[in-house]
Specification:
By secondary structure, the protein is mostly helical. Helix content is 66%, strand content 0%.
Length: 316
């Protein structure tokens, strides 16, 4: 019994605390996520700040659930501008670690508001921020504010060193969520469509037809071409399910080279989806740097390395 308990404890500790990251990696992830979100926010919300402030107002036909709960019934162009500016500024302050937790909370609130505006106007719920939101929550509850941050640089009194386990567990939690986001996506496909989704390529063909018709056939010519070849569509189905079901395997891989090959495949998956069907997950591959130790990568860029490490004295 004791031996079984010891094995369980060793497995559990190995899962959460065995990674040999740099102490600074959690702070570097916070900086990278803030930078990546600035790009993602532009790609997702730029249309909201093109609405004429002096133009006509309109009500949402189908407001998202939390807009209904809060009684938000119509578009307010001024709030769109304010929300977008605050969001981007909060991403910047999160990057440099100024009022870090306040900045992260501001980012989360602004994303919820602007996403609510877009989804309520579109009548559809988009999932492009789900993985990013989980990473933000992990950064919020972790000690990322104490690493490579202005908060730590200007803190009065003795600084408490960040322990290795305090770096490992939030990063591992981010990684596990991202892996099972893809795994559950594959499960959902089979649950809704059954094995018919696998047996032929019609599911992909229907999706491409819907997307190309929605966005205009001329803007997605490759998707239109792919619809005409069932064998290619079937291969796309097989590749998608293999990729999504197999994603958690990356948690067991220690080889950096293998991880690089794996995420090149992930980038191909998302970028090809963007070109073929207009699925806007093209920024998502930036998130996958959470699976790497960023400090050795940063050291390859001496000027950027010196700039970032001026933020605070070293804790490691």
């Amino acid at each position: 019994m004791n031996n079984s308990k010891s094995i369980t404890n060793n497995w559990w500790n190995t899962l959460w605390f065995s990674e040999n990251y740099s102490i600074d990696n959690l702070g570097l992830i916070r900086i990278w996520i803030g930078f990546s979100l600035i790009i993602l926010n532009f790609s997702q919300f730029i249309s909201l700040i093109t609405i004429d402030i002096n133009g006509p107002s309109f009500y949402y036909i189908e407001p998202i659930w939390y807009f209904e709960l809060l009684g938000i019934e119509r578009v307010n162009p001024i709030m769109n501008y304010v929300g977008f500016i605050v969001l981007q500024l909060a991403c910047l302050t999160m990057m440099v670690g100024y009022k870090t937790r306040v900045s992260i909370v501001a980012v989360i609130i602004c994303i919820f508001y602007l996403k609510g505006v877009r989804d309520s106007a579109a009548g559809d719920v988009h999932h492009r921020y789900l993985m990013w939101m989980n990473v933000l929550i992990m950064l919020l509850v972790s000690r990322s504010k104490d690493i490579l941050s202005l908060d730590n640089l200007f803190r009065k009194g003795m600084r408490k060193a960040v322990e290795m386990w305090e770096v490992n567990w939030p990063i591992k939690m981010m990684q596990i969520y991202v892996c099972f986001f893809y795994f559950i996506s594959a499960v959902a496909k089979l649950r809704v469509s059954g094995l018919n989704w696998v047996m032929d390529g019609t599911a992909v063909q229907k999706m491409l037809l819907t997307k190309t018709a929605r966005w205009n056939f001329e803007t997605l010519p490759w998707g239109q071409t792919m619809m005409e070849y069932p064998a290619i569509s079937w291969f796309a189905v097989l590749f998608t399910l293999t990729f999504e079901f197999g994603f958690p395997i990356i948690l067991l891989i220690k080889s950096t080279r293998f991880k690089i090959y794996f995420f090149i495949g992930v980038m191909f998956f998302h970028i090809s989806n963007t070109f073929l069907a207009g699925v806007g997950f093209w920024v998502t591959p930036l998130l996958f740097l959470i699976f790497f130790d960023l400090k050795p990568i940063l050291q390859r860029f001496p000027a950027l390395h010196r700039l970032i490490y001026r933020l605070q004295p070293q804790l490691s």
